[in-house]
Structure formats: structure tokens, C-alpha cells
């Protein structure tokens, strides 16, 4: 067998007890011939695992080898990605993709979909826009906030109960990612109304099956332009935005002229294509790539 | 390009069985992915993660296998997996803990064939003893025989355990429609006087039926033994037996040995793994499905 005919291998590292079957399906469909789950991986095991992965296939074989980092904690995943990158010994190096809980690809797809509607319906970019992320302290919410902030938006991440958690998360990711997140909380409709009254953009990344913004609260939005909701389980996160919406008017945002909504299926479609494209890119690249939310967002902008 | 076949293999144990992994790959699954140490309460999340990253056409090429060692917990996991589907996002699933469902199905089907070909009868009304029957193969073999109309007794070393397992089979596996009994190994002599059929499903290397007991069983027609490791679980029965007379039986009983059962078991497991791939609608395969398929192979075997 010719060296270039080596089968492609994806080593899937996860701090949790199981690698996600979702990601395994995606990896196989992305063209990896063989996928190997590594469960309960600790940060200090990443260097030896990576170095074990790079030294047995030769420089041509490493191009057919990749590492995926999953889990549920995006800070842990970023640490693992950084550790993996440092563990490479050129020319023995492989591509690495981090996408814990699908948060990076979901967030990148969400922001890119919103950005597209902002441009087409309002001729605006994210730059300087007042942006609120509900469910903003979960993995998808943080990644959404960071991506939007790096794209120039003024972003507030909202915890449903806990101000300390919101402040700590904003601080942690601002230091780590050079974003400018503000943390706050909103436990009542009055809190939410106050937050959205001056919001240009609303992202809803809260728990599945929880309505965050009712039609009543949406009346308080006076300058809302685009809202996106990743929740696919009824009741949906923002009343009036259906799962299939992709730029349809928000019927309950009666005081925001021209506000449009994006639902979970429109976002999910881009997320799916994006995760697939990132996995495929690991096999097609000449030089190893290290992919996280930044690369995901760049590619998501091309996809929308 | 058609999507590859992916089989997600769940087990509550520390490791998957390499036997099952080989079987899955040989049945044409492109990828066999292990999930070990799976808890019952993780099934829903794992199943829903499985079904939402492929389109309905891709999901026809996706499956779930449930292994482990315990029949009851595998059946519960299979039920839980079935309930977790969100049509049209759904995939087939197949439970076969320790290969027990396919092994038991193969054994009962082979015994049924011998009853039919050698004695022109069937399991209906027959007295069946499941010796060493408290393990998963014994439990399922007892259940299948009882569902086919036999009067089944599970025999174990401890009578309390044998009775408890019989109760488990009746309620959990037989939906309250069967009434298997439990009895102690010490009463075997008496019970053998009535037995038409014997299943030996004890641990490998343990003889559960001596030559004296074989000789003293006036009604014994068919004895089957899943043990392939000498000594044979039933005196006079050879692993290669496929309806051969049992040496020492004074009344013409025939034997079915581990290799004959294994041959049907192998074909049955492979057929069920292929059925998941080929079915147009999702299928949820348990011991009843194994038995239906094993009956076909037993006839032609």
C-alpha cells in the first residue's frame, strides 16, 4: 500500500465518561475511516496521548491523522487544545479540532446567521451594537458572547440566577480570549425587559425547553434588529420565533421596527455544515490546523 | 456517496465483548464504536446524541447494540433506547448481553427441531429443566421454552435464588404470561424422573447431569448443553452432538452440543446485526426476535 493510501484516523479525546455519539457520527461522515474514543481524559494526559498519536505514522501518515477534543467545558477544551498544540514535534504534528458540546460550531453558526440578517435586512454589521446573550454562562452562550464581542459588538452575558457566576465567566473569558464581555443576571421578566429595552441583538442560548422571552417582555424592545434562538425543544426560547425561521418578522416585538428572528433549525443547518467542513478541512490541509471558535466563525461566515 | 454504517455499542461493563465487535464488523458495520461503563440513566442522552447528527437516510445506516452481562438491565436499556427516539429521528437497536439472547434462542430452536424430527412433537406441555439456569442464558432459554408452552423449572444450587430468578423471568421477560418455577439442585434426581427436556447452561467445566441421572430419566428426549469446555455439562453428550444418541440414555434421548448450538447462535446474531442495517423501519431486537430467526436456521442447519 502506498503511504498516501493510509487510512484516516481521528483520535477523539473527552474529559467526560463518553465521547458524544453526535460527534462520532459527524467524524465518520466527515471522512475519517477510523475513529477512536478516549474517555475520561485528564488535561495532564493530553501531551502523552498527542505524542503517542504523532510518532507512529511518519510525516505523510500524520496528514491522515487528527485529534478531536470534546467534553462539556469550553475552558477545559481550550486548555486541551493549547496543550495539544504545544505537544506537537514538527514535522510530527496533526490537526486538532475542539468543539465541546458542539458549542463552538453552534455559537459560530448562530452569530454568522444573525450577522447575515443584520446585513441584509438592516445594512449593519455587529460593530458597536448592544447585544444580549440569554443563557450566556453556558458553553454555547459564552462562545456566542466571545465571538460577537470579537466581531465588535458590545456584549452582555446573562445568567438566569447568579450574578457572581456571570461576572466570573465574563472575567475569565475576557482574559483568555481578549473579549469585552459584561456579566449580569436576569431572574424576572422585569430584569429581562430592562436588558432588552436597548438591545439591538438578542441571542438565546438558554436551556432547551425553557421560554426566556415572552411576547409581553418583547414589547419592551425598542431597537431590536435580529434575535436568534438555538432551543429546538418546545416551548422555544423566544416567543414568536419558530424553529424554521430564518429572517421572518418577530410578530411580538411590536415596538422594534423590522426586527427579524432566526430559529434553531436554520442555525442547526449551518452548524451541521460547519462541523462537517471543519472535520473535512483536517484531512485536506497541507499544514496542520488548530481549530476552535475563531476558525469556526470564519468558516461559518463563508457558509452563510 | 452512501454514508458508512455506524454501530454505537453500549455496555455497562468495563469492556465490550471482542466477540460482539468482531460480529458487528463481519456483519458489515463500517465502524463499531465502544461506550463502556454506560449507566441506565445515560441511555436517553446517548441515544438522542446518536439520532440528531444524521439525516433520516443516514440514520438507516446507524444502529445501537446493547451488551453487558445482565439480561434484565439490557432489556431495560433497550426499552429506554426505544423510548428516547424522536421520529423520524430514530435508529434500530439490538440487545444481546453476553450473547445470551442469541445463545438461548439457538439452544431452544435446536431442541425444538430435535423434538420434531426425532419425536414428532414440540415443546407444548413438555417438562423442561433448566440446569444451572440462573444465569442469563438459562433465564432466556427458560423464558422462550415457557412461551412455547413448556412447563419449565429453573434449577440452581440455592432454591431461594432459583425461585427469585424464575419470578424475574415470569414478570420481566414473560410479561406475566408464563409461570416458570424454581427448584434446588439437590432435588434434581426426583425432577429428572419427569423431565422431557434438559438445558444445561451452567458455568463452563461444571457437570450438571451425571451419567446416573441420564440413565435414570425415563422420559428424557432431548438434552442440550451450551458448555464447550470439557468436562461436558451433561454426561455422555459431546460438544459436536447434533441430535446424536446420548451414550448412557436407556430411553433413546438425543443430545445437542455446544458447537451445534454455537453454529446457529452465530448465524442468528449475524442475521440480527444485518437486519438492523437492512430494515427500512427501525427495529428493536430482543430475545423473541432472536428466537424467530434461530428457528429458521435450526430447520436448515
Query: How many domains would you count in the coordinates of chain B?
Result: 2
- CATH class of the largest domain in chain A equals Alpha Beta
- Tell me, what's the shape of chain B? elongated
Order of helices and strands of chain A: EHEHHEHEHEHEHEHEHEEEHEH
What does this structure look like?
The complex is a heterodimer of chains A (304) and B (301). Chain A is of the alpha/beta class. Helices cover 42% and strands 17% of the residues of chain A. Chain A has helices spanning 21-29, 46-54, 58-62, 74-87, 103-122, 139-150, 163-177, 189-196, 215-218, 264-284, 293-303, and strands at 9-13, 34-38, 65-69, 95-98, 130-134, 154-159, 182-185, 201-204, 226-229, 246-249, 260-262, 290-291. In chain A, the strands form two sheets. Chain A has a seven-stranded mixed β-sheet, sandwiched between helices. Chain A has a five-stranded parallel β-sheet with strand order 2-1-3-4-12, sandwiched between helices. Chain B has 301 residues and is an alpha/beta fold. Chain B folds into two domains: 6-95 and 266-287, 3-Layer(aba) Sandwich (Rossmann fold); 103-256, NAD(P)-binding Rossmann-like Domain (Rossmann fold, 3-Layer(aba) Sandwich). Chain B has a seven-stranded mixed β-sheet with strand order 7-6-5-8-9-11-10. In chain B, strands 2-1-3-4-12 form a five-stranded parallel β-sheet, sandwiched between helices. The radius of gyration of chain B is 20 Å and the shape is elongated. Classes of the chains: A alpha/beta (304), B alpha/beta (301). The A-B interface holds A 17-26, 28-29, 34-35, 37, 39, 272 and B 3-4, 6, 8, 30-31, 33-38, 42, 46-47, 49-50, 52-54, 58, 62.
Topology diagram in text:
The complex is a heterodimer of chains A (about 300) and B (about 300).
Chain A: E1 9-13, H1 21-29, E2 34-38, H2 46-54, H3 58-62, E3 65-69, H4 74-87, E4 95-98, H5 103-122, E5 130-134, H6 139-150, E6 154-159, H7 163-177, E7 182-185, H8 189-196, E8 201-204, H9 215-218, E9 226-229, E10 246-249, E11 260-262, H10 264-284, E12 290-291, H11 293-303
Parallel strand pairs in A: 1-2, 1-3, 3-4, 4-12, 5-6, 5-8, 6-7, 8-9, 9-11
Antiparallel strand pairs in A: 10-11
Helix pairs in contact in A: 2-4, 5-6, 5-10, 5-11, 10-11
Chain B: E1 6-10, H1 18-26, E2 31-35, H2 43-51, H3 56-59, E3 62-66, H4 71-83, E4 92-95, H5 100-119, E5 127-131, H6 136-147, E6 151-156, H7 159-173, E7 181-184, H8 188-192, E8 197-200, H9 211-215, E9 222-225, E10 242-245, E11 254-256, H10 258-278, E12 284-285, H11 287-300
Parallel strand pairs in B: 1-2, 1-3, 3-4, 4-12, 5-6, 5-8, 6-7, 8-9, 9-11
Antiparallel strand pairs in B: 10-11
Amino acid at each position: 500500500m502506498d503511504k498516501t493510501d493510509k487510512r484516516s484516523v481521528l483520535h477523539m479525546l473527552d474529559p467526560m465518561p463518553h465521547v458524544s455519539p453526535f460527534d462520532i457520527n459527524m467524524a465518520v461522515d466527515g471522512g475519517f475511516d477510523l475513529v477512536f474514543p478516549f474517555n475520561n481524559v485528564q488535561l495532564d494526559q493530553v501531551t502523552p496521548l498527542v505524542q503517542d498519536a504523532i510518532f507512529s505514522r511518519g510525516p505523510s501518515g500524520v496528514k491522515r491523522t487528527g485529534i478531536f477534543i470534546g467534553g462539556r467545558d469550553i475552558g477545559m477544551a481550550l486548555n486541551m487544545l493549547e496543550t495539544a498544540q504545544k505537544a506537537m514535534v514538527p514535522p510530527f504534528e496533526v490537526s486538532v479540532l475542539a468543539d465541546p458540546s458542539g458549542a463552538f460550531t453552534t455559537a459560530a453558526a448562530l452569530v454568522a446567521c444573525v450577522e447575515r440578517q443584520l446585513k441584509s435586512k438592516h445594512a449593519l454589521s455587529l460593530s458597536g451594537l448592544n447585544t444580549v446573550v440569554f443563557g450566556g454562562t453556558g458553553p454555547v452562550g459564552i462562545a456566542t458572547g466571545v465571538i460577537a464581542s470579537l466581531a465588535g459588538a458590545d456584549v452582555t452575558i446573562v445568567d438566569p440566577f447568579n450574578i457572581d457566576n456571570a461576572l466570573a465567566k465574563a472575567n475569565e473569558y475576557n482574559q483568555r480570549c481578549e473579549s469585552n464581555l459584561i456579566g449580569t443576571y436576569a431572574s424576572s421578566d422585569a430584569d429581562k425587559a430592562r436588558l432588552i429595552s436597548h438591545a439591538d441583538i438578542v441571542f438565546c442560548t438558554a436551556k432547551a425547553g425553557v421560554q426566556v422571552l415572552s411576547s409581553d417582555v418583547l414589547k419592551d424592545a425598542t431597537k431590536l434588529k435580529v434575535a436568534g434562538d438555538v432551543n429546538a425543544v418546545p416551548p422555544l426560547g423566544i416567543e414568536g420565533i419558530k424553529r424554521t425561521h430564518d429572517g421572518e418578522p418577530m410578530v411580538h416585538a411590536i415596538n422594534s421596527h423590522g426586527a427579524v428572528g432566526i430559529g434553531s433549525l436554520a442555525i442547526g443547518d449551518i452548524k451541521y455544515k460547519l462541523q462537517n467542513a471543519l472535520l473535512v478541512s483536517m484531512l485536506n490541509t497541507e499544514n496542520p490546523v488548530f481549530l476552535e471558535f475563531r476558525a469556526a466563525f470564519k468558516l461559518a461566515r463563508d457558509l452563510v | 456517496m452512501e454514508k458508512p454504517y455506524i454501530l454505537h455499542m453500549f455496555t455497562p461493563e468495563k469492556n465490550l465483548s471482542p466477540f460482539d465487535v468482531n460480529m458487528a464488523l463481519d456483519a458489515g458495520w463500517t465502524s463499531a464504536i465502544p461506550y463502556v461503563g454506560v449507566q441506565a440513566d445515560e441511555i436517553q442522552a446517548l441515544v438522542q446524541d446518536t439520532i440528531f447528527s444524521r439525516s433520516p437516510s443516514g440514520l438507516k445506516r446507524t444502529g445501537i447494540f446493547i451488551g453487558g452481562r445482565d439480561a434484565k438491565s439490557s432489556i431495560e436499556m433497550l426499552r429506554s433506547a426505544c423510548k428516547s427516539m424522536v421520529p423520524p429521528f430514530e435508529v434500530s437497536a439490538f440487545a444481546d448481553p453476553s450473547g445470551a439472547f442469541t445463545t438461548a434462542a439457538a439452544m431452544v430452536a435446536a431442541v425444538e427441531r430435535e423434538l420434531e424430527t426425532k419425536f414428532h412433537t414440540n415443546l407444548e406441555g413438555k417438562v423442561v429443566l433448566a440446569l444451572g439456569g440462573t444465569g442469563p442464558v438459562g433465564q432466556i432459554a427458560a423464558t422462550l421454552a415457557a412461551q412455547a408452552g413448556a412447563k419449565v423449572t429453573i434449577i440452581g444450587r440455592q432454591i431461594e435464588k432459583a425461585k427469585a430468578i424464575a419470578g424475574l423471568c415470569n414478570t420481566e421477560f414473560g410479561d406475566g404470561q408464563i409461570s416458570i418455577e424454581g427448584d434446588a439442585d439437590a432435588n434434581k434426581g426426583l425432577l429428572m424422573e419427569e423431565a422431557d427436556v434438559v438445558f444445561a447452561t451452567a458455568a463452563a467445566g461444571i457437570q450438571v447431569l451425571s451419567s446416573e441421572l441420564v440413565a435414570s430419566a425415563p422420559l428424557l428426549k432431548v438434552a442440550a448443553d451450551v458448555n464447550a469446555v470439557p468436562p461436558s455439562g451433561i454426561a455422555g453428550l459431546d460438544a459436536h452432538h447434533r441430535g446424536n444418541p446420548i451414550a448412557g440414555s436407556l430411553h433413546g434421548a438425543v443430545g445437542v452440543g455446544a458447537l451445534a448450538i454455537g453454529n446457529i447462535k452465530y448465524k442468528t446474531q449475524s442475521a440480527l446485526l444485518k437486519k438492523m442495517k437492512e430494515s427500512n423501519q427501525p427495529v428493536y431486537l430482543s430475545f423473541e426476535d432472536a428466537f424467530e430467526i434461530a428457528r429458521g436456521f435450526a430447520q436448515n442447519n
